[in-house]
Protein backbone atom coordinates (compact mmCIF):
# COMPACT_ATOMS: atom_id res chain seq x y z
CA UNK A 1 0.00 0.00 0.00
CA UNK A 2 2.81 2.42 0.87
CA UNK A 3 4.38 1.65 -2.50
CA UNK A 4 1.06 2.51 -4.23
CA UNK A 5 0.91 5.87 -2.43
CA UNK A 6 4.42 6.73 -3.59
CA UNK A 7 3.68 5.62 -7.16
CA UNK A 8 0.50 7.71 -7.28
CA UNK A 9 2.36 10.73 -5.94
CA UNK A 10 5.09 10.27 -8.54
CA UNK A 11 2.48 10.10 -11.33
CA UNK A 12 0.89 13.35 -10.15
CA UNK A 13 4.26 15.11 -9.91
CA UNK A 14 6.85 13.24 -11.96
CA UNK A 15 10.27 13.25 -10.33
CA UNK A 16 8.94 14.15 -6.88
CA UNK A 17 7.30 12.42 -3.92
CA UNK A 18 4.24 14.28 -2.70
CA UNK A 19 4.62 15.58 0.86
CA UNK A 20 1.14 14.94 2.27
CA UNK A 21 1.98 16.64 5.57
CA UNK A 22 2.19 20.00 3.83
CA UNK A 23 -0.98 19.78 1.76
CA UNK A 24 -3.60 22.50 2.02
CA UNK A 25 -6.69 20.36 2.63
CA UNK A 26 -8.94 23.15 1.36
CA UNK A 27 -7.32 22.88 -2.07
CA UNK A 28 -8.14 19.16 -2.39
CA UNK A 29 -11.05 18.29 -4.67
CA UNK A 30 -12.21 15.91 -1.94
CA UNK A 31 -13.21 18.95 0.14
CA UNK A 32 -13.89 21.51 -2.58
CA UNK A 33 -16.33 19.35 -4.56
CA UNK A 34 -18.99 19.04 -1.82
CA UNK A 35 -18.35 22.52 -0.36
CA UNK A 36 -16.42 21.50 2.76
CA UNK A 37 -13.87 23.77 4.41
CA UNK A 38 -11.30 22.72 6.98
CA UNK A 39 -11.26 25.47 9.61
CA UNK A 40 -8.50 24.02 11.76
CA UNK A 41 -6.47 20.84 12.22
CA UNK A 42 -3.72 20.55 14.82
CA UNK A 43 -2.63 18.43 17.75
CA UNK A 44 -5.12 15.66 16.95
CA UNK A 45 -8.16 17.95 16.69
CA UNK A 46 -10.01 19.27 13.66
CA UNK A 47 -12.93 21.57 12.88
CA UNK A 48 -14.71 21.48 9.53
CA UNK A 49 -17.66 23.31 8.00
CA UNK A 50 -20.02 22.51 5.18
CA UNK A 51 -21.47 25.49 3.35
CA UNK A 52 -24.97 24.09 2.88
CA UNK A 53 -26.63 24.16 -0.54
CA UNK A 54 -29.91 22.66 -1.74
CA UNK A 55 -28.22 19.49 -3.00
CA UNK A 56 -27.05 18.69 0.58
CA UNK A 57 -30.62 18.48 1.82
CA UNK A 58 -32.98 15.54 2.02
CA UNK A 59 -34.82 13.26 4.37
CA UNK A 60 -36.35 13.86 7.74
CA UNK A 61 -39.31 15.90 6.53
CA UNK A 62 -37.77 19.25 7.51
CA UNK A 63 -36.83 21.65 4.70
CA UNK A 64 -33.45 22.42 6.33
CA UNK A 65 -32.43 18.84 7.16
CA UNK A 66 -29.10 17.54 5.86
CA UNK A 67 -28.84 14.21 4.05
CA UNK A 68 -27.08 11.48 6.05
CA UNK A 69 -24.81 10.56 3.15
CA UNK A 70 -23.43 14.10 3.10
CA UNK A 71 -22.80 13.92 6.85
CA UNK A 72 -20.94 10.60 6.46
CA UNK A 73 -18.79 12.08 3.67
CA UNK A 74 -18.01 15.05 5.93
CA UNK A 75 -16.98 12.72 8.76
CA UNK A 76 -14.43 10.96 6.54
CA UNK A 77 -12.71 14.27 5.78
CA UNK A 78 -13.10 15.67 9.29
CA UNK A 79 -11.74 12.64 11.11
CA UNK A 80 -9.02 12.22 8.48
CA UNK A 81 -7.86 15.81 9.03
CA UNK A 82 -7.63 15.24 12.79
CA UNK A 83 -5.56 12.12 12.18
CA UNK A 84 -3.22 13.84 9.71
CA UNK A 85 -2.50 16.54 12.29
CA UNK A 86 -0.76 13.85 14.40
CA UNK A 87 1.71 12.80 11.69
CA UNK A 88 5.38 12.71 12.56
CA UNK A 89 8.44 12.79 10.29
CA UNK A 90 8.07 9.06 9.46
CA UNK A 91 4.44 9.23 8.25
CA UNK A 92 3.88 9.22 4.48
CA UNK A 93 0.12 8.57 4.24
CA UNK A 94 -3.07 7.27 5.79
CA UNK A 95 -6.27 5.43 4.88
CA UNK A 96 -9.66 5.09 6.52
CA UNK A 97 -10.19 1.58 7.88
CA UNK A 98 -13.61 2.05 9.53
CA UNK A 99 -16.17 4.78 10.05
CA UNK A 100 -19.16 4.14 12.30
CA UNK A 101 -21.76 6.89 12.21
CA UNK A 102 -24.65 7.20 14.63
CA UNK A 103 -27.40 9.69 13.88
CA UNK A 104 -28.88 11.16 17.06
CA UNK A 105 -31.78 12.86 15.32
CA UNK A 106 -32.53 15.13 12.47
CA UNK A 107 -29.60 17.35 11.49
CA UNK A 108 -30.87 20.83 10.65
CA UNK A 109 -28.60 23.54 9.26
CA UNK A 110 -29.66 26.66 7.42
CA UNK A 111 -26.29 27.87 6.09
CA UNK A 112 -23.31 26.14 7.75
CA UNK A 113 -22.97 22.65 9.19
CA UNK A 114 -20.12 22.40 11.70
CA UNK A 115 -18.21 19.34 12.85
CA UNK A 116 -15.41 18.64 15.31
CA UNK A 117 -13.10 15.64 15.69
CA UNK A 118 -10.48 14.50 18.17
CA UNK A 119 -7.92 11.70 18.11
CA UNK A 120 -8.51 9.49 21.14
CA UNK A 121 -5.64 7.02 20.74
CA UNK A 122 -2.60 6.72 18.45
CA UNK A 123 -0.38 3.67 18.16
CA UNK A 124 2.44 2.96 15.73
CA UNK A 125 0.22 2.63 12.66
CA UNK A 126 -3.35 2.75 13.98
CA UNK A 127 -5.24 5.86 15.06
CA UNK A 128 -8.67 6.04 16.73
CA UNK A 129 -10.72 9.21 16.39
CA UNK A 130 -14.17 10.51 17.42
CA UNK A 131 -16.26 13.18 15.74
CA UNK A 132 -19.49 15.15 16.16
CA UNK A 133 -21.66 17.18 13.81
CA UNK A 134 -23.92 19.86 15.25
CA UNK A 135 -27.33 21.18 14.20
CA UNK A 136 -27.96 24.92 14.14
CA UNK A 137 -29.34 24.81 17.70
CA UNK A 138 -26.03 23.38 18.97
CA UNK A 139 -27.35 19.88 19.57
CA UNK A 140 -25.30 16.90 18.42
CA UNK A 141 -26.93 15.58 15.26
CA UNK A 142 -24.52 12.69 14.67
CA UNK A 143 -21.40 11.10 16.11
CA UNK A 144 -18.76 9.04 14.39
CA UNK A 145 -15.88 6.83 15.46
CA UNK A 146 -13.14 5.98 13.03
CA UNK A 147 -10.02 3.90 12.77
CA UNK A 148 -7.28 5.03 10.40
CA UNK A 149 -4.09 3.30 9.33
CA UNK A 150 -0.89 5.29 8.99
CA UNK A 151 1.84 4.40 6.52
CA UNK A 152 5.33 5.08 7.84
CA UNK A 153 8.75 5.13 6.24
CA UNK A 154 10.80 2.13 7.19
TrEMBL record:
Keywords: Hydrolase. It holds the Pfam family 4HBT. Residues 66-139 form the Thioesterase domain. It comes from Rubrobacter radiotolerans. SUPFAM superfamilies: Thioesterase/thiol ester dehydrase-isomerase (SSF54637). The lineage of its organism: Bacteria, Bacillati, Actinomycetota, Rubrobacteria, Rubrobacterales. This is PaaI family thioesterase. It comes from the Bacteria. The keyword Hydrolase applies. It is an enzyme of class 3 (hydrolase).
Amino acid sequence: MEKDLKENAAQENPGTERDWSRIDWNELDFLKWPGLRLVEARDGRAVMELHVRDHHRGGGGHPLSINGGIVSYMFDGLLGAAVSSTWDERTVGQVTMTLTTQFKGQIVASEVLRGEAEVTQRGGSTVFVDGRVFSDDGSIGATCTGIFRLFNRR
